[in-house]
């Protein structure tokens, strides 16, 4: 009320007294008149309230007139006209084309009259400040005026626009930033911005909380797991507004636009997110794109003809998911001490998995000591005795084990037995040892296996048997060091001829250990499993190891069956069972493939995180207004050490069918890392084929990556204005949120705010007509009361 009174009557309290020499006379005169007024009203016969009111009116008038003697003046600071800058930013993104619920005009239509240079608030602002005008979408652009304003931008880089203006005028006197936007920024990042260092920001929020009816896909993600046949789960998060109680149809389409799956979500609730999940099994390798689209049930034709739709926009009704199936095939090396049933079922389980290539070395005859006395001329292993191959030079000698090579091997591959060099062993992704003693390997091969896991990042699994773990003398060996269990301090448990299995709490949390959908079905599976008979005894679990399967001993104790842990860059597992194959032989139904599924999921877990020689990632820089994509490439040599001086070529395929060739440069002076940046200009799906070459020009490996540019989907991810964000930056920067219809009043208050460059202005309080009018009103009021009550 006082602020309104001051603005209307221009009455301001004086803070300067120009003629202080008249202070004593003014006090004497005012005091004398005050005493005279009290004496006069004391002798009058009238009600007390009347005498008090009349005396107060006349006293105030007298004091006001007496103050004139000391010439009261008002001194204040006002901005120097044109010396301070004031920035006006207008968001021209497509989201301003939205018309809110119950409105016939869009947000942009309401904004345009206020952007006219002849608007009163702009005229008043230009009289006091040097106004700098900008429009922004993905980039900030200066404009002379807003005559050509058109909301057709593909992004809302609010953060970049504000920080860009603040940095541009960091050394200039800027009084504030007036921001016209709906607050839905598309350049949010994890970087924390200190808005207190920015000039005061005054956001003008465009749009209402109640938006028009709309179905929007907020986000689409794709994840691959180690489940059966590695299905891909595509999850879409959607939000509906204005469709409460209705049904929404969500479809999954492949790259050719063919419908793969359809789901219907009933009873949609306004303002609440809901998720839809699709599981697909791609038949192709490499980068694959899937499209998710949503629409009101029965309104599919609206996607082709937007005029038939009642939604606020259809630009957020579809999104693209990227699936990368380009890591395989994985190579697994299986080494067994003897032919057994375990290998039969393992090999059969992986035969139909195109992503896994199993090579095996199965020992069919042991070697003899070199000092073994021999009573015959032949030096061949005894397995060849009395055979046609006994005299051949290429057969294994008596001091060499006889190995059977199994798998789709190239000529000469594994011909020398277990690999003796990193070049040969590091081409595999995982190693499985089954019922094999430590003396089978040389000391160099044992160290090589440890390096395979710790340096190359490979997977390692040891299966149980009569010559595994402690029975195989692996303690105090490099292989024993990488196992997740100790092989020393092994205690002989109570004798058990048969035992069953149970899943630990940690095992229930691991998807690759589970075979069936629910915990109850898993319990039923273990109840139906046959009793097993071969289990190796081991010591305690190593620090960091996780027990996933166990077998009960008595009522309260258990023995570990399956234990895993990380080791260096890789992962290791110990499965102490030696007769898991009994599970298959005792199944009631021949169609039950629980064992095969368990083996496939175990092997996929084993190779899931094993690095390739060439690793590529495509990362979007969301904080950058141009939204560039950084294609980061990591190249290793044969020993999986960072490779310097590699040549990396990137072939980018655009949605238009064009192919661009980029050359990656060393990144951040880090050995083995290279990167190139690409700015997508066309919405759609992008592929990048990365080819790495050795310094001598020979090709190392080719790999693919992909990404999606969807500026419209990101712009319309939500239609409600982000008022919380705008209020936050206004508060922290020292500004405030300004209503669109209150711009004139806001500009009028700017001179009274903190401005960089100001000048003092002094004016006489008495020379304002409001002071003189107040004195007259007080005297006339006192006279009127006396006349009304008949006082003399």
From TrEMBL:
Question: Which residues are listed as membrane-spanning?
Answer: 22-41, 48-70, 766-785
Under Gene3D superfamilies, the record lists: 3.40.50.880, Immunoglobulins
Task: Report if keyword Membrane is assigned.
Answer: yes
Look up keyword Transmembrane helix and say if it applies. Answer: yes
Q: Which UniProt keywords apply?
A: Glutamine amidotransferase, Membrane, Transmembrane, Transmembrane helix
Q: Where is the Putative glutamine amidotransferase domain?
A: 416-607
* Name this protein carries in UniProt: Glutamine amidotransferase
Higher taxonomy: Bacteria, Pseudomonadati, Planctomycetota, Planctomycetia, Pirellulales
């Amino acid at each position: 009320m006082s602020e309104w009174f001051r603005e209307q009557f221009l009455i301001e309290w004086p803070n300067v007294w120009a003629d202080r020499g008249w202070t004593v006379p003014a006090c004497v005169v005012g005091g004398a008149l005050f005493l005279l007024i009290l004496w006069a009203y004391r002798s009058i016969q009238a009600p007390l309230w009347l005498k008090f009111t009349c005396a107060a009116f006349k006293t105030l008038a007298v004091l006001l007139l007496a103050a004139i003697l000391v010439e009261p003046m008002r001194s204040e600071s006002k901005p120097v006209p044109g010396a301070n800058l004031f920035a006006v930013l207008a968001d021209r993104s497509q989201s301003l084309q939205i018309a809110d619920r119950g409105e016939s005009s869009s947000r942009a239509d309401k904004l345009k009259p206020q952007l006219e240079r002849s608007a009163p608030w702009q005229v008043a602002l230009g009289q006091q400040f040097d106004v700098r005008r900008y429009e922004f979408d993905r980039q900030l652009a200066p404009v002379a005026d807003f005559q050509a304003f058109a909301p057709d931008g593909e992004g809302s880089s609010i953060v970049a626009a504000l920080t860009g203006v603040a940095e541009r005028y960091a050394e200039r006197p800027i009084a504030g930033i007036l921001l016209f936007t709906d607050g839905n920024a598309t350049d949010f990042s994890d970087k924390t911005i200190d808005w207190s260092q920015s000039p005061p920001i005054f956001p003008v929020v465009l749009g209402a909380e109640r938006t028009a009816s709309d179905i929007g896909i907020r986000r689409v993600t794709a994840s691959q797991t180690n489940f059966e046949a590695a299905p891909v789960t595509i999850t879409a998060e959607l939000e509906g507004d204005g469709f409460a109680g209705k049904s929404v149809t969500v479809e999954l389409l492949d790259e050719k636009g063919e419908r793969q799956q359809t789901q219907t979500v009933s009873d949609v609730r306004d303002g609440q997110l809901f998720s839809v999940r699709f599981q697909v099994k791609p038949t192709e390798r490499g980068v694959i794109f899937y499209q998710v689209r949503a629409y009101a049930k029965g309104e599919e034709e609206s996607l082709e003809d937007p005029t038939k739709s009642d939604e606020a926009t259809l630009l957020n009704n579809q999104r693209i998911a990227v699936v990368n199936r380009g890591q395989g095939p994985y190579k697994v090396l299986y080494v067994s001490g003897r032919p057994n049933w375990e290998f039969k079922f393992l090999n059969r389980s992986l035969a139909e998995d195109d992503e896994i290539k199993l090579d095996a070395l199965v020992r069919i005859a042991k070697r003899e000591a070199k000092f073994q006395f021999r009573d015959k001329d032949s030096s061949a292993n005894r397995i060849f005795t009395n055979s046609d191959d006994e005299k051949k030079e290429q057969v294994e000698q008596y001091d060499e084990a006889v190995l059977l090579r199994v798998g789709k091997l190239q000529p000469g591959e594994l011909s020398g037995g277990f690999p003796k060099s990193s070049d040969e062993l590091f081409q595999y992704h995982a190693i499985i040892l089954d019922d094999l003693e430590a003396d089978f390997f040389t000391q160099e091969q044992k160290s090589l296996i440890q390096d395979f896991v710790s340096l190359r990042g490979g997977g390692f699994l040891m299966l149980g048997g009569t010559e595994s773990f402690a029975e195989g003398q692996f303690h105090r060996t490099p292989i024993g060091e990488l196992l997740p269990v100790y092989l020393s301090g092994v205690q002989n448990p109570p004798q058990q001829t048969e035992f069953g299995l149970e899943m630990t709490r940690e095992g229930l949390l691991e998807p690759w250990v589970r075979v069936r959908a629910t915990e109850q079905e898993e319990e039923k599976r273990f109840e139906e499993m046959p009793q097993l008979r071969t289990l190796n005894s081991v010591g305690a679990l190593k620090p960091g190891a996780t027990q996933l399967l166990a077998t009960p001993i008595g009522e309260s104790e258990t023995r570990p069956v399956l234990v895993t842990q990380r080791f260096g860059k890789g992962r290791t597992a110990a499965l102490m069972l030696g007769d898991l194959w009994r599970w298959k032989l005792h199944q009631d139904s021949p169609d039950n493939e629980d064992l095969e599924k368990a083996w496939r999921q175990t092997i996929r877990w084993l190779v899931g995180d094993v690095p390739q020689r060439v690793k590529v990632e495509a990362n979007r820089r969301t904080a950058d207004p141009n939204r560039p994509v950084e294609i980061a490439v990591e190249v290793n040599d044969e020993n999986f050490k960072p490779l310097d001086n590699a040549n990396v070529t990137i072939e980018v395929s655009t949605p238009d069918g064009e192919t661009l060739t980029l050359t990656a440069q060393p990144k951040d002076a880090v050995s083995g890392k290279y990167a190139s940046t690409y700015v997508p200009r066309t919405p759609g799906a992008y592929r990048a084929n990365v080819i790495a070459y050795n310094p001598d020009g020979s090709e190392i490996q080719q790999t693919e990556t992909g990404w999606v540019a969807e500026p419209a989907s990101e712009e319309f991810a939500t239609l409600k204005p982000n008022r919380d964000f705008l209020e936050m930056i206004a508060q922290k920067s020292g500004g405030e949120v300004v209503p669109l219809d209150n711009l004139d009043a806001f500009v009028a208050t700017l001179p009274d705010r903190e401005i960089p460059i100001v000048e003092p202005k002094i004016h006489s309080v008495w020379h304002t007509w409001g002071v003189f009018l107040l004195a007259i009103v007080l005297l006339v009021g006192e006279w009127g009361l006396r006349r009304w009550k008949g006082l003399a």
